[in-house]
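User: Assemble these into one structure.

Assistant: Restating your components, then the assembled model:
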Amino acid sequence: MQDLPTVLRAADLRGLAQAAMPLLPQGAGLGDIEKMLSFVERAVPLFEKFSQSMMAMRQHEGNGSGAIAPGVNEDIWEGDAPPLQAAPPPRQTVQPVAPPAEIDPQRVYAALLGAMAQAPEGMLVSDALILARDHKSLIIPQIEAELKNL
Amino acid sequence: MFGVRGSGKSWLVKSILDSTQDALIYDPLDEHGGYRRYIPEDRASTEELNTLIHDLVIPRKPRLFIVDEANKYIRPKPTPLPSGVADLNDFARHWSMSCGWVCRRMTQFSTDIVELSNHLFFFKLSGKNDYAYMENLHQGLGDAVRNLKPHEFMSLTNGSEMKLHAPVDAPNHAVHTGVTVKV
């Protein structure tokens, strides 16, 4: 605090905020840090969901490589079950969901480090997370926009 | 810190401010010249205090932050705490910060802050509701505060340790600034 004037007024506060802005892209102030942190907060579950989907798909493909056709219950036959055709696929009644977008973790990591490097002196990750949490409703749309850039 | 006007609060505030260079006081009445202070444009605005906390106090984390006339901004329940005040109340200890709230009467102030404070200071108060409030906080506190002599004060630490204090010595900057005298 010793670097600040002894008497502070609202104009000084605005001046301090403006002085901090050139450090951050597009003059967005602390909002950009919040944006990046919230972006990470959103991106991590997306990664997890995507990887889970991939794992499930691979497991399904692995199971389908055996001799038994889908839909055949081999327990009710003595000896070899007659060859059966697989049941037709169910009618599509729901539009397929697009898989989550693939995001390069390196780019998220780089974006986060870049944002934190521009944080005001003394700001910790925990502070930024608190701010991000408090302004979640403002930040989510910014994240959605940011996702398109990665 | 509680006490009516002229009871001695300001000298105790100034003495506490003397304890560190890394301090900031929210000074709506322009009384604390000589100390690092923020004088609001609108001394009735809770938003201005909130902005200061979010934009300066939390990022800078001074060792000591005091809000004078705090009852103007931090009201009793059911009024919610301003978000910056709530953050300080929750996190100041983790940030190695001390926060002080100065007001005249505890019945005008948030019980959340009172009940979570480590140290409470009471200058002379004689209102009926204040007496009941203090007795409710700690038996005997209301009587002790009622019987204080000028500028003496009681402290209540961690909700149980009650102590009588003599008036503080003159602080480094004892004279109130910005006081308009009507002739």
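The mean pLDDT of chain B is 91.
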